[in-house]
Design a protein that fits this description.
The chain is of the alpha+beta class. It has eleven helices and seven strands.
Length: about 375
Amino acid sequence: MTKDLANSLFLRNKQLYDLKQRKRYSFKRVAAVTAIFCLVMFLLQLLFTYLLPDGGKVRSLFTLRSLLSHSIAFLFLSTFYYYVVNTYYSLAADRKPFKKYVPLTLLIMGVYSAYYVTVLHIFPEKSSQDLSPVVVGVSTFLGACFMTAIGFLIAYLTSLRDEQKKNKILENQKLELEIQNSQANFNFLKAQINPHFLHNTLNFFYAKALPLSPELSEGILCLSDIMRYALNEGGKDEKALLKDEIEHLENVIRINQFRFSSNLHVELKVSGVTAGAKIVPFVLITLVENAFKHGDMKDPAKPLTIRITVDGRRLYFFCWNKKNPGFKDHSTGIGLQNILKRLDIMYGDAYSYKVDEDANFYSTELIINSL
C-alpha cells in the first residue's frame, strides 16, 4: 500500500470515527448557537418595545430582573438542547424504533414544561397574570411541543447528512482499495514482462518486415509505441501529458485502420494549445476504443468524429459514431465505470460527462474545467 493511499485511508477512518461519536454537538457549539438565538430574540423584543406607544419602557429590558431572566433562559436552553439534540441523534444514528422515542419525548416535554411554569412564577409578566390555568397549560404544552420538535428536527437532519457522508467515505475507501488492487495486479503483470525485451523484439520484427512490407512494418512500429505508452502510463496514479494521450489516440486509430485495410472513416480534430496540459491517462482512449468497438465507420457520410479542444485549462472532448447494427453487445460497462470513478477522484465537480444515444447514433461529451 502506498504512503498516499495509507494517509487517505487514515483520514477517512478518522472521519468515520468522528461521525460515530454519539455526542455529535459539543456543549460549546450548542451554547454559541443558543447565545446567537437569544441575542436575536432580545433585539427583536427591544425593537417591538420601542415601536409600542409606551416605547419609553425600553429601559425596563435592562433591569437586573430582566437580565437575570434572560441569563437563566440562556443557560437552560443551552443545557436543554445539548441533551435533546445529542440524545435524539444517538437514537437516529442507531436506527432505533419509534417506540424508543416516546418516553424520551415525554421526559423532554416534561422538563421544558416544568421550566416554563417555574419561570412564570419567578418572573411573572403582567400580561400573563390574568390568564386562566387552562390557557397557561395549553401555552405550556404548545411551547414544549415546539421546542422539542426543533431539537428532534436538528438531530434527525444531522443524522441523515452524516449517513450520506459515511456512505460516501465508505464508497471512496472501497474504490481506492480497488484501484490499489488493480495497480498491484498491473505491476505484477508488468514485472513479468521485460519492456526492453519486448521493445527489442518488436524492433527486430520491424527491421525484418521493412523490406518486405512497409505497411506491416509501420503496423509493428505503431504497436510498439502503444505497448510502450501502456507500460509507462498504465501503472501511474498521476496525470499524463495530454499531447502523449493524443499521440497514443492517433496510434489506436492507425492500428484500427490497419485491421480494416484503411476502410474506416475517422475524423480527428485537435485545436488549442495542448503543450504542458495533463490529463488522467487512458480516459480519452477508452472512449474512442468504445466507439471503434460498437460503431460502424464504413460510411464516408457518417464518419467517426472526434473533437478535442483545449482552452486554457478547459478541455472539451466530443466523440460521435454511427452504431453497428450487427454488433451484439456483451460488454459489462466496467471500463466506462472505472473511467468515471477515476474522473470523480481526480476532478470532483470540475468535470461533466454526457452521453447522447438513439437507435442509430451514439455520442459522448466530456468537459474538464481544470486540467
